[in-house]
Amino acid sequence: MMWARLLKRVFDIDIEQCACGGKLKLIAVIEEPDVIEKIFKHIGLDPQPPPITPARRRAQ
Ligand SMILES: [Zn+2]
Question: Could you tell me the distance, in angstroms and rounded to a whole number, from the CA of residue 15 to the centre of ligand 1?
Answer without folding.
Answer: 12
